[in-house]
Amino acid sequence: MDMRPDFDDIFMDLAVNLAKRSHCIKKHVGAVLTKDTRIISIGYNGPPAGTHNCDIEFPEHGCARDSKGSCSLALHAEQNAILYAVKNNTAVEGSTLYVTLAPCLACARIIFSMGISKVIYLFSYAEYKGIGSDEGVDFLRKFGVSVEKYAKEILVADPLI
Asked: CATH homologous superfamily of domain 7-149?
C-alpha cells in the first residue's frame, strides 16, 4: 500500500497553510494554482502588496467594508494566485485551483475567463456568508469548469480559516 500523500492532499494542505499568512481580521483564505502536478502560483487574501496590513493598521475592525460586507481593499486568494502567475508570464489555462473557501461569484468569473479547468475547495462560501447557494460554484459548473468539494478531513487549527 502506497503511504505517500496524493497531490490533492499536498496542495490543499499548502492552501490551508498559506491562509495562515493572511492579515485579514475576518477570514483567512489560501489558494494554490497547479498544472500537471506542479505548483505554478500561490496566493492568500489581503490588500495589494505594498499597501497595508489590516490586522496592523486596522486591528479592531479591519479595513472598510463594501455594500456586501466584504473587505473593500483586499484581493481574494484566488485573485492573488492568478495575478501573480500572469504577472510572471505563467500560463494558467488548463490549470487546477485549490482554495480553502469556495470562490465567490466575482472570482468565479475570473477563474472561468482565465481558462482554469478545475477548482477544488475546502469550505463553502455560502455557509460562511450566510447566503442560499455557492453562486461562484454554480457559475463555474454552468459554464463547464469542474468543481469539487475537497472530500477528506483536514486539521485546521486557525479559527479564521
From this structure: Cytidine Deaminase, domain 2 (3.40.140.10)
